[in-house]
Amino acid sequence: MTHVTGTTGTLVLAGTPIGDVADAPPRLAAELETADVVAAEDTRRLRRLTQALGIHTTGRVVSYFEGNESARTPELVEALTGGARVLLVTDAGMPSVSDPGYRLVAAAVEKDIKVTAVPGPSAVLTALALSALPVDRFCFEGFLPRKAGERLGRLREVADERRTMVFFEAPHRLDDTLAAMAEVFGADRRAAVCRELTKTYEEVKRGPLGELAVWAAEGVRGEITVVVEGAADSGPEELDAAELVRRVQVREEAGERRKEAIAAVAADAGLPKREVFDAVVAAKNAARTGLAEGKGLS
């Protein structure tokens, strides 16, 4: 492909089938055939995909996965600044959604390089639609931490989330994850486990978290997406100062700035921001006073 000197190229994020190859978007084949560079999470899977589509790539094919994402991004940006059309594909679904892509998109945008997409299948949206849970508001939480303590901590952070939540999980950790969800969210919270979406053995198991945890203990295989009902909206809560401070601290530990954390906690509790701010300041002053008194006694 010939490029005009002095022009930058285009980064194309392309969705690939999550199971049934017939779900490939029509533009995918054309982009694969004409891209100057195809960056693939797994070049072997890319080869199987192009064979299934009956096409051949004409551009350079390079691997782009979690292990080399940081090192390969500058190389791809250089190709883009030189005018190349770079196509990014992952093993399944849309790039950047719990898959490689974010770093390259951010780097391209920083260089004022055009970024576009070939929309395609998404396990997140497919599972959400099949779950029979509310879909008007939802959030995607990706993969939970592997360690039990960290996993429980993350779940406690979203225990009060009222939107429907979507998670990815490995099959060998599914039983532990569902048990942890039942512990934190309650065994009666509704959920759906979506397995092998769009594939031959597709299965959607719906029910309370407690029952799903028992079912998963027998062993589950395949690609897993878990959809969990949000917390019930019981109206503004009556929270004491200590609980307000705790909730602000949880949000700060998750990366929010204190000002935003206070505003969010106040909104959730139906309180003026000033009331939450005063509780945080009082707790901070009490901690300082206690520390000073402790030093005096010593």
Question: Brief description of this entry?
Answer:
This protein has 298 residues and is of the alpha/beta class. The protein is built from eleven helices and ten strands.
Question: How is this structure best described in words?
Answer:
There is one protein chain. This protein is an alpha/beta fold and 298 residues long. The protein has eleven helices and ten strands. The strands form two sheets. It has a five-stranded parallel beta sheet with strand order 3-2-4-1-5, with helices on both faces. A five-stranded mixed beta sheet has the order 6-7-10-8-9, with helices on both faces. Strand 2, helix 2 and strand 3 form a beta-alpha-beta unit. The longest helix has 25 residues. It is globular.
